[in-house]
Design goal:
The chain has 13 helices and twelve strands. By secondary structure, it is an alpha/beta fold. The chain folds into two domains: 147 residues, Response regulator (Rossmann fold, 3-Layer(aba) Sandwich), CATH 3.40.50.2300; 148 residues, Response regulator (Rossmann fold, 3-Layer(aba) Sandwich), CATH 3.40.50. The strands form two sheets. It has a seven-stranded mixed β-sheet, sandwiched between helices.
Length: 330
């Protein structure tokens, strides 16, 4: 056997001995998602909102440690930290940034005009300059709206249905949030038809929330509406406790509020928004451009009534509300 034939035999034998897995293609791209949130998160997996994202990504075929890396960044309720955290994600060269609520989306928008941004739970994307139109965003931002400004009149209606003798209602809000100004106008217009006085009270920090209840007492408020805001979601327990202490009927936009002891909660499902954000990320990974992906509005709404709290306040919840509730807490 000549040298050339010996070489071919040796090569052939070595190839046959090589495991078939070695012929497989190189592993595909490992996608990197930057997640930017304004409030404090103790555990992503157990958080009722953020916890919906990972399972949704897994259902679409993305497994962390295999073909997905998620860079979590949370501001712990200090929105002034968001710009720096957004820049961190840009420097990491993530493929997509998922930005939660207005402050995070604004920080991400200022940090990059090229990395796709999927916004989650934004009150008015067009009015806040995140999208040209809902049907055609036009830039590097798309995602999900929650129509928070439109819930104000509905919240007032439900609150007055549960507490019909109320004539002075406060709105716990933050004027720095443009959506809150819209919500206040909508609530005031609805209240004028019911001869109800609306009393705005502001809060930006947990300490401000305590002061806000002092302002409600001074204004002789008889009930209050909680505007949707990251700091208020983070301080759900604090607000519910103060509502009970001051014996004030109240309503907020997230189900956790009623579950924490507030009287009523009604709004778009935040968990559903996080779940649906995964489909945007998937489409972008597959080549879709944010500019061409329509901004979607809520499809799932939740009404939770705490009848135990109603009894403590001496209120009887109308049967019409109870029938409509997704959950009644006794």
């Amino acid at each position: 056997m000549n040298q050339r034939r010996k070489l071919l035999v040796v090569l052939g034998a070595s190839l046959l001995a090589t495991p078939f897995g070695s012929f497989a293609q190189k592993p595909g791209k490992v996608w990197r998602v930057g997640f930017l949130g304004p409030r404090k998160i103790v555990d992503v997996d157990t958080d009722v909102h953020f916890g919906a994202f990972r399972p949704a990504m897994r259902a679409l075929g993305y497994v962390e440690g295999k073909n997905l890396i998620v860079e979590w960044r949370f501001a712990d309720g200090k929105v002034e930290r968001l710009p720096g955290l957004a820049r961190e994600l840009v420097n990491l060269k993530v493929d997509v940034i998922v930005a939660v609520a207005t402050p995070s989306t604004l920080a991400a928008q200022k940090a990059t005009t090229t990395i796709p941004i999927v916004m989650v739970n934004i009150g008015d994307p067009v009015g806040q300059g995140f999208a040209r139109t809902l049907s055609h965003p036009g830039g590097n931002i798309t995602g999900l709206s929650i129509m928070s400004g439109e819930f104000g009149p509905k919240h007032l209606e439900m609150l007055l249905s549960a507490a019909p003798k109320v004539s002075r209602v406060s709105v716990l809000m933050n004027r720095e949030n443009a959506i809150h100004a819209t919500l206040l106008k909508e609530v005031e217009a609805a209240a004028a038809k019911r001869n109800v006085k609306i009393l705005p009270v502001e809060a930006r920090t947990p300490e401000d929330i305590d002061k806000a209840f002092g302002a409600m007492a001074k204004e002789k408020s008889q009930a209050f509406i909680v505007a949707q805001h990251p700091i208020f979601i983070q301080q759900t327990g604090q607000i519910a406790q103060l509502a009970a202490k001051n014996r004030l009927p109240s309503i907020a936009g997230t189900r956790e509020y009623a579950e924490a002891g507030g009287l009523i909660s009604y709004g778009a499902s935040n968990a559903d928004g996080f779940r649906r954000s995964a489909s945007y990320v998937d489409k972008i990974f597959k080549g879709a451009k944010p500019a061409d992906l329509p901004v979607e509005q809520p499809t799932k709404f939740e009404l939770v009534i705490n009848r135990k709290t109603a009894k403590a306040l001496g209120l009887t919840i109308p049967q019409s509300l109870l029938i409509s509730a997704d959950r009644v807490i006794d």
